[in-house]
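Tokens in:
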């Protein structure tokens, strides 16, 4: 069983009295690695290292050199993709067919943003005053704290780290205490790629580390992915310190099937939207809105297919759905299911701990579908973050939009229709940061990602992500010899 170490100032470090906590494999329920619990002093050291490097060596590195380092980082991630996928599946129970592909997606992000590293152009701005030359530049913000969740550690990290590095920032990374191993492994790639010491730092541990990151030294941005409750606390603490933040939080996304849709394709999309990643994704299509004309057909087919989903060892390529990522989440999912039954929702399939060969030691939840759900039920309003689908009927397009928007969240949504005019109308009316039409859970590094309402603010991926990690500086140069009244506005 490996003892991991923190990565601070370009070195893997630990103290003589370093605290550790076990990484638990959710498939076997056994410890498989030891993760360091960073102390307040170690967090302060990480922030200091990032600050010193940002104000020193890193500020002198050209965009072209940053791009070279990022491409090398992508190379290392791809070269080690099989091993990293295996480690991530071992750590969080996600099936290896997905964790492996996420390594390629993450590598693509580093390559995509490397292309921007030497292209962060400013603008020359014509003024009313002809004697003043004015230009605006995009400058790195400084030291960014990146806090990621346990469901997709490498994918979520690339959303943040790639634009942060491209813009010329230094970072301190805190992964979830429930899935830290691949982030610490990734730090080895940072070292091998040749980044100057202190550009990337990794501290691990529980909520105490998150709090220390906001109080142990000067930071310039916080980027967080996780639950709305924790997000509120982090954003409030960051706000008190006047530190801007990016929040990618939860979702209760409506996936809407109209009667004119390609129903067979929509059913596949609905399955992928909720049971892929065991439903442990903020973009899960956990509310399936189905027009009455196809409601029975869709519901019956989803129930049939849910019963056929193959569960098992997440590291087996044949497995289609893995475990809940950790025991607390496993218990929360089962608690949400019980609450829905108590409220009167009809349990059409699933609803309990999965049983069978090779499942007895893991945190497996049966693929679960509720029918007879009204949108005011807790199961339709609160994020479950598990393989639990609520199917709600609707009659008209207007009703579908009203139900879809009747939630505190606004992260993602899906529309299934063959009517282009309807697709455009509903896309415009749905209050969500992402709208998929005749697809679901598709991602692209070029496309911005983020939410409305309680799903957060700020954007990741695509060119918009660079705005989260740059400041605008304006420069005015007066090249005239004219003397002016020192007490007059120079208009």
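Residues out:
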């Amino acid at each position: 069983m490996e003892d991991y170490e923190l990565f601070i100032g370009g070195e893997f470090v630990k103290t003589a009295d370093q605290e550790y906590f076990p990484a638990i494999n959710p498939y076997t329920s056994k410890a498989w690695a030891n993760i360091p619990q960073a102390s307040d002093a170690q967090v302060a050291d990480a922030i200091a290292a990032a600050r010193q490097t940002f104000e020193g060596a890193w500020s002198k590195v050209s965009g072209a050199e940053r791009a070279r380092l990022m491409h090398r980082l992508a190379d290392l991630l791809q070269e080690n993709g099989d091993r990293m996928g295996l480690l991530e599946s071992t750590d969080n129970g996600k099936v290896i067919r997905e964790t492996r592909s996420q390594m390629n997606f993450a590598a693509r992000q580093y390559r995509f943003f490397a292309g921007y590293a030497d292209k962060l152009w400013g603008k020359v701005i014509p003024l009313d005053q002809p004697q003043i030359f004015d230009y605006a530049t995009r400058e790195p913000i400084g030291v960014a704290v990146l806090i990621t969740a346990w469901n997709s550690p490498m994918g979520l990290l690339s959303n943040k780290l790639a634009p942060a590095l491209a813009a010329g920032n230094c970072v301190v990374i805190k992964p979830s205490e429930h899935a830290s191993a691949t982030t610490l492994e990734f730090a080895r790639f940072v070292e091998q790629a040749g980044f100057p010491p202190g550009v990337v730092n990794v501290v691990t541990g529980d909520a105490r580390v998150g709090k220390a990151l906001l109080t142990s030294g000067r930071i310039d941005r916080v980027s967080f992915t996780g639950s709305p409750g924790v997000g509120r606390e982090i954003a409030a603490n960051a706000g008190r310190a006047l530190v801007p933040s990016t929040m990618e939080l939860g979702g209760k996304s409506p996936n809407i099937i109209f009667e004119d849709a390609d129903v067979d394709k929509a059913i596949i999309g609905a399955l992928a939207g909720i049971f892929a990643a065991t439903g442990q994704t903020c973009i899960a299509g956990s509310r399936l809105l189905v027009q009455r004309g196809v409601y029975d057909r869709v519901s019956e087919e989803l129930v049939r297919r849910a019963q056929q989903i193959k569960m098992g060892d997440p590291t087996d390529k044949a497995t289609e759905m893995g475990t809940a990522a950790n025991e607390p989440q496993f218990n929360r999912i089962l608690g949400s299911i019980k609450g829905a039954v108590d409220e009167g929702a009809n349990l059409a399939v699933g609803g309990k701990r999965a049983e069978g060969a090779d499942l007895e030691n893991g945190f497996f939840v049966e693929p679960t579908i509720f029918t007879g759900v009204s949108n005011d039920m807790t199961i339709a309003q609160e994020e479950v973050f598990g393989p639990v689908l609520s199917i709600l009927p609707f009659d008209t397009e207007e009703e579908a939009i009203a139900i879809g928007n009747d939630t505190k969240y606004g992260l993602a949504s899906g529309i299934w229709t063959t009517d282009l005019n309807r697709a455009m109308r509903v896309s415009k009316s749905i209050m969500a940061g992402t709208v998929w039409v005749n697809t679901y859970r598709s991602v692209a590094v070029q496309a911005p990602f983020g939410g409305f309402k309680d799903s957060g603010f700020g954007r990741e991926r695509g060119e918009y992500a660079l705005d989260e990690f740059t400041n605008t500086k304006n420069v005015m140069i007066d090249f005239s010899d004219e003397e002016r009244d020192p007490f007059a506005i120079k208009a």
